[in-house]
Amino acid sequence: MTAPEDNREFDVIVVGAGIAGPAIASGFGKQGRSVLVVERDLKEPDRIVGELLQPGGMRALKKLGLESCVEGIDAVEVDGYEVIYCGKPVHIPYPLIDPQAPKGPRVKGRSFHHGRFVMNLRKAAQETKNVEFLEASVTQVIRNPHTNHVLGVKTVDRAGTERHYFAKLTVMSDGIQSKFRKEYTSKRPVVKSHFAGLILEDADLPAPRHGHVIIGKSHQPILVYQVGTHETRILCDIAGKMPSNGTGELKRHLEGNVMPYLPESIKPSFAKALATQRIRTMAAQFLPAGVTQTVGLVLLGDALNIRHPLTGGGMTVALSDTVLLLDLLRPELVPDLANAQAVDRQLHKFFWQRKQLGSVINVLAQALYSLFAGSDENLEILRKGCFRYFELGGPCIDGPVSLLAGVLPRPFVLFCHFFQVAFYAIFLNLFDHGIVGFPKAFLQMFTVIWTACVVFLPMMWEEAKWW
Question: Which of the two residues, 124 and 101, has the higher pLDDT score?
Answer without folding.
Answer: 124
